[in-house]
Amino acid sequence: MKVEKTRDRKLALYSVGTITAHETLYRCAACNHTAHSQELAALAPPRHSFGYDVIIYIGEAAFRHARNEQEIRNHLQQRGISIPASETTLLARKYICYLACAHRESTEALRSHMKDQGGYILHLDGTCEADSPHLFVGLDEISSFVLDSVKLPSEKKEAIIPFLQELEMAYGEPAALVHDMGSGILNAGKEVFPEVPDYICHFHFLRDIGKDLFQREHDHIRS
To answer: Is the confidence at residue 181, as pLDDT, over 70?
Structure first.
């Protein structure tokens, strides 16, 4: 091994603010492989100025705490980290990508945990606004783990079946299904999990019964 080169890298870390890291690269004369600092690589993505901890802060501030871009930038500025508005938006999106990758890599661990708990109950639901795609989600009722989510053009059977098949491949057959009374979900569940007990969500059931029993009276009182 011999020293290839040294370089300085400016990093913004949430825990300490902005620093300059000095990295020494080593190259193997036999195989020509260049070795980088593993410690530095654990702090920030390659060729990036903002550390993983900054990305995590931005992502959680935006998506968990509903803070806007200016609030996030002001808070980081107080910690000695200056960040452009466009970079804030980009890092928030990268947070989602990294989180998705981490979730995929944890599939076996999640499956093992749910198996130890006696299996999982697959709760299915979708939501949409106007003519936008449906955000369809599958979660385990026992552990409250969100197992997967996907945008679907509709809640028709043909759109839902591939989603259920992917869940089965990743986590095995559920102990039971729970969902609303949509015909698409009901028929897709019967086709992919024909032997699995299938239940209607209590909330959706009562809401539907309430409409059947009291819709006319409710409309009369409201008017």
So the answer is: yes
The one-letter amino acid code at 3 reads V
Judged against a pLDDT cut of 70, whether residue 129 lies above it is answered with: no
* Dihedral pair phi/psi, residue 184, rounded to 5°: -65, -50
The answer to whether 168 and 193 are in contact (CB under 8 A) is: yes
In order, the DSSP letters of 53-65 are HHHHHHHHHHHTS
User: Each residue of 140-169: b (16+ CB within 10 Å) or e?
Assistant: beeeebebbebebeebbbebbbebbeebee
Closest-CA residue to 74 (of 93, 61, 63): 61
Bridge partner list, 125 = 137
Q: What is the 3-state secondary structure (H, E, C) of 94-148?
A: HHHHHHHHHHHHCHHHHHHHHHHCCCCEEEEEEECCCCCCEEEEEEECCCCCEEE
pTM of the predicted model as reported, rounded to 2 decimal places: 0.73
Residue at 121: amino acid letter: I
CB under 8 Å to 154, separation ≥6 — which residues?
134, 184
Give the integer Cα–Cα distance in Å for 32 and 27: 6
Q: Which residue bears the tokens 């006319």? A: 216
